[in-house]
Amino acid sequence: METHQKETSTATDDPRAREALRRAFDNTARWQPDFKGFTADLTVNLNGKTITGPIIVKGPREVSVQLSDGDVQKWAQEQLGMMAVHRGPRSFEESDGKYALTMEDDGHPLGIKLHIHGSHSFYRLKDDRITQINRKMAHPGMNPFAFTINVEESAVTQDRKNLTTKYTVYYYSPTDGKLNNVESFTDSHVRVGSSDLPATRRIISFENGQVTVKNLTFTNHKLL
């Protein structure tokens, strides 16, 4: 969810906010700069329907998934692309560091409020970790939407970096505030070489009048 439209901003950058977000960024686990990708076998279980096939992940736009069901294949490819966006190597300056940053301490239990001016976004930070992400999105031909991500649990990698293992996403309308959907993500990871790769992902959401559970299981990882 790093891709979003840029808005015009005249805010003055606060060095304290910049340093706070930089620390949180540096404490977040990512694949190493020379990461070339990986292959694995993927098993998808959608409310009991199971499909298996090979995958190749090289980057956010270089994801290959081979499953017998086209719709499931597209969905799994989107999930892997999202993982690659969040875990891919990049610098702070290439990410939120390119925006003007300000912050305020409003006593919120999830920490300080850090505004990312020019991106329709604000985060919450606590103990040098990002605990909440708030963002409004608008794409040509689509209705605008917004979401809030609450980071609930994280693991600490061998490199002493924070790797999110559980988070919930609330999708809502930015115009009337109506809640449209909630997705709960639970992830686990496996260490292969110097990389922490996806091992499982479970997503619980509400779709078409029912609660759905989708599970991705990755095995036989090999680094490229």
Distance between the termini: 25 Å
Task: Choose one word for the global shape.
Answer: globular
CA-atom Rg in angstroms:
18 Å
Could you describe the largest sheet, including whether it forms a barrel? Answer: 12 strands, antiparallel
Mean model confidence by pLDDT: 92
Count the strands? 12
Structural class based on helices, strands and sheet pairing:
mainly beta
**Cross-sheet strand order for the largest sheet:** 3-2-1-12-11-10-9-8-7-6-5-4
Unreliable residue stretches: 1-6
Share in β-strands? over 45%
Number of helices: 2
Helix content: 10-25%
The helix/strand series, from N terminus to C terminus, equals HEEEHEEEEEEEEE
Provide an overview of this structure.
By secondary structure, the chain is mainly beta. The model is unreliable at 1-6 (pLDDT under 50). A hairpin with a 6-residue loop joins strand 9 (162-172) and strand 10. The protein has 2 helices and 12 strands.
In short:
Helix content is 13%, strand content 51%. The chain is mostly beta strands and 224 residues long.
Task: For this entry, give a set of tags.
224 residues, globular, 2 helices, mainly beta
Task: Chart the SSEs and their pairings.
Layout: H1 15-26, E1 38-46, E2 49-59, E3 62-65, H2 70-87, E4 100-104, E5 112-117, E6 121-126, E7 129-137, E8 145-156, E9 162-172, E10 179-192, E11 195-207, E12 210-223
Antiparallel strand pairs: 1-2, 1-12, 2-3, 4-5, 5-6, 6-7, 7-8, 8-9, 9-10, 10-11, 11-12
